[in-house]
Write a structure and sequence with these properties.
The protein is mostly helical. Helices cover about 55% and strands about 0% of the residues. The protein has two domains: about 100 residues; about 160 residues.
């Protein structure tokens, strides 16, 4: 690495660290489906709430929050207990008529029945994901492939459960994993035996455009290859935690009071 490259990386790291310290706090979470996870103290409840909140995290943010709230209200105080007691019939009745853009109640029911089967077999989503991984895996992708298949084993959840082997960037699943694996003022964590350094950046249009600005990719499509390239760029800055800056950077474009112009000024 040349001296100029070292300076460039150090300079970018200092700017991103400034953004992290400024925006990576609870007061900047809303409107973000992550906020629903704070309602649950038990890890098994939080991971079920997380898989719901992340799977519906597409489209207009106001509709995302409305849809997630609707589903979690039906599930009651303990989403994990709700799933353990669920049946195909009860889920079909409770989520009949549900619609979130392309997702229907049938998709939600299929995903939750997949979650129930996982809980019956492994005890929790966490224990399942751990069993899907190998300690020598460089990223969470091998574990994510198996986990997604298990979550889809009881029906057709549609795009709520993306399959990484098909090239999808799996933004929402990587978002879920960020919430569950990382622990700081914003991310609640709990999946302690999975290393943050194996996480992949949750790549959506916002993060893709920001990554282009930062020079972390020149690729034309926001797919898994691009997500891995961007993650590799962040790994040079924070080897142990490449998705550290994801929350702070994605405030630009999500919150009305923080615009892309503000990001240009800071970077």
């Amino acid at each position: 690495m040349s001296h100029n490259q070292e300076y460039s990386i150090k300079n970018l790291e200092q700017k991103l660290e400034f953004l992290y310290k400024k925006y990576n706090c609870r007061k900047y979470v809303h409107p973000d489906p992550l906020e629903f996870l704070y309602n649950y103290n038990e890890l098994q409840d939080r991971e079920i709430a997380g898989i719901i909140a992340s799977s519906l995290a597409y489209g207009r943010v106001a509709q995302i929050l409305k849809s997630v709230s609707h589903v979690l209200d039906i599930m009651g105080k303990s989403p994990a207990e709700f799933v353990r007691n669920a049946s195909v019939k009860s889920l079909d009745e409770q989520f009949k008529g549900f619609k979130h853009r392309f997702a229907t109640g049938a998709h939600i029911s299929a995903m939750l029945m997949g979650a129930k089967k996982i809980i019956q077999e492994y005890g929790s989503l966490y224990e399942c994901f751990l069993s899907c991984m190998n300690k020598n895996d460089n990223t969470i992708i091998p574990g994510l492939v198996v986990f997604s298949e298990k979550l889809s084993a009881c029906g057709e959840p549609g795009h709520l459960v993306p399959l990484p082997q098909k090239g999808s960037a799996c933004k929402r699943m990587n978002l879920f994993l960020r919430w569950m694996v990382r622990k700081d003022e914003v991310d609640p964590g709990g999946w302690e035996e999975i290393s943050c350094k194996k996480l992949i950046i949750p790549l959506d249009v916002h993060m893709y455009n920001i990554s282009l600005k930062l020079g972390l990719t020149k690729r034309k499509q926001a797919n898994m290859k691009t997500a891995l390239e961007i993650t590799s760029g962040f790994t040079k800055l924070v080897p142990h935690d490449p998705v550290k800056y994801d929350f702070a950077l994605t405030r630009f474009g999500i919150r009305d009071d923080i615009s892309y112009e503000n990001l240009d000024e800071l970077l």
